[in-house]
Amino acid sequence: MNNLALFENKDLWFRHPIIGDASFDTFERYAQNPVHKGSVPFEWPVNGTLFKDPISQHLYIYATLYYKGYWPPRGVDKGLHCIAYKSTDNGVTWTDIGTVLEGSKEGYVSIDGFVGGVADMCVNYDNGVYHAIFGWADPDNINGGLGYARSDTPDGPFVITDTPLHAELNQPLLLNRYKRIYSSSLIKRENDWIIIAMMSTPGNWGGTWALVVLHADKPEGPYGPPQFLVYPQSKVFHPPIVEFFPAFQDQDYVYCPFTSVALNRNFQVIYRALKEKADLPEAWEIYKYGSVWHAVDAENESQGIWGQAFAGIIDNGDFKVMYPAKTAVAEDCGTINLAQCRWDQLDKGEGFYLSAPNGSAVTFLQRHYEEFVIEAEVIAKGKKALFWAHGAPIGPNITTAAATLHPLMLNEMIILEWEHSRWQLKEITNLGETRIWASGDYAEAVLGEDTVQVSCTLTETNITINNKQVWNGIIPVRAGRIGLLAEKGNNLFVRRMTIDRAGEMCWLPYLATEGLIGAGEASMVADADINQWKLLKNNLFRFGFGYKTSEPGSIVKWNYVGADFKLWSPRGPELGKFNLYLDGQLLQTIDLTHSIDVESSIIYESTPLAGGYHAVTLEQLEGNLVCDSLDFLTI
Hints:
Layout: E1 28-29, E2 36-37, E3 44-52, E4 59-66, E5 81-87, E6 95-102, E7 117-126, E8 129-137, E9 144-151, E10 159-160, E11 166-167, E12 180-188, E13 193-200, E14 210-216, E15 227-230, E16 242-244, E17 248-249, E18 253-260, E19 268-274, E20 285-289, E21 311-315, E22 318-326, E23 334-342, E24 352-356, E25 361-364, E26 372-379, E27 384-390, E28 413-419, E29 422-428, E30 434-441, E31 449-456, E32 461-465, E33 468-473, E34 481-486, E35 490-499, E36 507-510, H1 512-517, E37 534-536, E38 546-549, E39 555-562, E40 565-571, E41 577-582, E42 585-591, E43 598-605, E44 612-622, E45 625-627, E46 629-633
Antiparallel strand pairs: 1-23, 2-23, 3-4, 4-5, 5-6, 7-8, 8-9, 9-10, 9-11, 12-13, 13-14, 14-15, 16-18, 17-18, 18-19, 19-20, 21-22, 22-23, 24-35, 25-34, 26-31, 26-35, 27-28, 27-34, 28-29, 29-30, 31-32, 32-33, 36-46, 37-38, 38-45, 39-44, 40-43, 40-46, 41-42, 41-44
């Protein structure tokens, strides 16, 4: 039988920035983590970079010291600032060299003598000078943007110029939402310099994030206006709620890692572009989609990676990264940490992780199975859960940061849970009703590495844990997905997993929330209106809820990795017309108008499509537009 826990099979597993990530990464943590731990009043060190000095070959960590909650109260003596750590032995030991970049009460980061903050420092060396760009904001976080500083040594101090590179108050609002530029990386090219940065809403409130580029002839500028590269409101594939920072390079490419800003943030996606074409949107491609990071059970990173993606350098074939994390919620203190793997083995591990530091996570095989025999070796400190016959829809509970599984996702399954010598088999219906089929004791394995086997046929189901049968009986058999569930605070490692058959390709249903989060429509509250979108709960919608808007130009966007798709929607007298796009190409104009309200049905079914990254976009033309659901075919 094929071992589905080998990296060759990673694309059979569902990976998603919010739902869960079967990660085959090979990162190993630095034994002396954390390198730095926050302390009062700067309890949140984050937004750092890793730099190798081409002159001395020494390694540097530049990190920002934030107050808890990010922003200090007005009038504090010291604003946000950047510190550095230095290693002269290739990362074996690190020395704190203190503050290397900070604003002054007389500079543009301050108002009336009250100091603002500088953050997100990125260093690049050229022709005897160490150039730094950074983010800044005034004490009230009304104005902010990018700044430039320089030093003759990577140890600093870096001297800030008199004027900023970019200021929010001088920036016109783009796409009716983007204004603040931050989290920037400085890239030297053959004939110019570019800054690659994040752009978000005024005051960096968040909710939607765009990758932008700015050009200059010199590192100190002046820089031209921001141009969009990768962003949710485009009509091409873009993973929902991911945020960039910082870039790293090899000889040819610029790589931009984005981190999920969901409740669990271990999902990372890496975009890349040829350096000399990195100012062109069409040059950017997804290099790695998930499966490159996992959480660990360690005090210094109880809440997992946080605040940014990993900051990496490729060094003689090694991929060295700095990453921030947080201690447990009770302390909620930031830490700066290190990890390393071989660059060419980044996502080629034997076995995979499912991380759930802050909320439940799910991964499943993108196939339907009816009868099967499955065997798995699973390690976890807490509860382990294997489910099958899963047919529930997929999507988040909210449409912005801290999103987690929609409650409907945990319906319509049969699930085996086991922990601390007790197991339980239960069924959850599509209405969320639970039936306990059986429960009992089992013999725990050494170090929590349990072997479980489930044989499910039309005539009987057998369950064996650690080579001893714990149950035999008859339960309903129906086609569905097979997967794993990690509950909050638990991280699973699957060493081996075999199934006696290949399974069948299947349709995966995405919820309405997935369509809005994919378009960058943000709401911080579950089960509520979202910007111009009105939440509706009724049986006209396929899964009992959807959204409606009359705002001109509004869009819905489902991003998926698969093939064909089917679009669902109700019809009615209050609904109007919209344009339907696939990967930026107009497919059809659809009119949802009907004399009476009609329950949701398939209103468009695609022709056969090649498997890959796809985006289905609905753009309002006339009348009301609704957001219901979309199915896509697995590959």
